[in-house]
Amino acid sequence: MFGISELAIILIVVILIFGAKKLPELARSMGKSARILKSEAKAMKSDQAPPTTAEAASDEASTPRIIRTAPGDTAGRPTDQPGNDTPRT
């Protein structure tokens, strides 16, 4: 695949492009994205599994699935903008 020298050159180029200060932030956001992708894939697999009883299927169908932001995540929707549930005049 890649040798040590190729990986070192790639790492140097990445540091030059993004800068050393941005790398931890990029790694953090990539990790957060990977966790979200993993949890969504797991949820899709569990949704595709056939329910064991009819009662379990009716409970899952009536409960909406809510995606929440991580604690401390400030990249949400601004509060001064109306959402889909706000009537417009």
Overall SS class: mainly alpha
Strand content: under 5%
Order of helices and strands: HHH
Strand count: 0
Question: Share of helix among residues?
Answer: 55-70%
- In whole angstroms, the N-to-C terminal distance is 60 Å
Rounded to an integer in angstroms, the radius of gyration calculated over CA atoms is 21 Å
How many individual helices? 3
Shape: elongated
Contiguous runs where pLDDT drops below 50 for at least 5 residues: none
Average pLDDT works out at: 75
- Quaternary class: single chain
Question: Main beta sheet: strand number and arrangement?
Answer: none
Describe the structure concisely for a colleague.
With 89 residues, the chain is an all-alpha fold. Helix content is 56%, strand content 0%.
Which descriptors apply to this entry?
89 residues; membrane; protein transport; transmembrane; transmembrane helix; mainly alpha
